[in-house]
């Protein structure tokens, strides 16, 4: 099952990313959601979205 998340109106496939492979509870990464408002709680910035393991799916339809 592919793991998609939304961030700032863009939908990303993060299935192949090391931090998303594991159980979401352990890694605090929850697929299937718009995580824009949660990034400020993360120990990293949005530059993680430039990782090669991430694929852009398209824009989030409101
Ligand atoms: C408290 C919550 C969070 C924790 C503790 C956390 C922790 C981490 C850590 C430790 C990494 C690896 C960083 C590195 O390799 O430099 C990572 C990668 C990543 N995180 Fe988070 N994160 C959190 C929330 C979020 C949120 C809210 C998003 C999305 C908006 C997000 C998206 C990502 C992405 C896309 C990656 C890169 C993929 C990867 O390297 O596997 N994270 N996160």
Describe the protein:
The protein has one domain. It has 2 helices and 3 strands, in the order ββααβ. The mean pLDDT is 88. A 3-stranded antiparallel beta sheet has the order 1-2-3, with no helix packed on it. The protein is globular and about 25 Å long. The protein is an alpha+beta fold and 62 residues long. 13% of the residues lie in helices and 21% in strands. The site of protoporphyrin IX containing FE (HEM) has 21 residues, from strand 1 and helix 1.
**Estimated helix fraction:** 10-25%
Cα(first) to Cα(last) distance is: 23 Å
- How many beta-strand elements? 3
When the domains are counted, the total is: 1
Contiguous low-pLDDT stretches (5 residues minimum) are none
Question: Characteristics of this structure?
Answer:
62 residues, alpha+beta, 3-stranded antiparallel sheet, 21% strand, binds protoporphyrin IX containing FE
């Amino acid at each position: 099952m592919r793991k998609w998340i939304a961030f700032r109106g863009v939908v990303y496939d993060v299935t192949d990313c090391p931090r998303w492979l594991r159980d979401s509870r352990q890694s605090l990464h929850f697929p299937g959601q718009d995580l824009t408002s949660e990034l400020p709680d993360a120990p990293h910035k949005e530059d993680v979205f430039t990782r090669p393991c991430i694929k852009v799916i398209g824009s989030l339809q409101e």
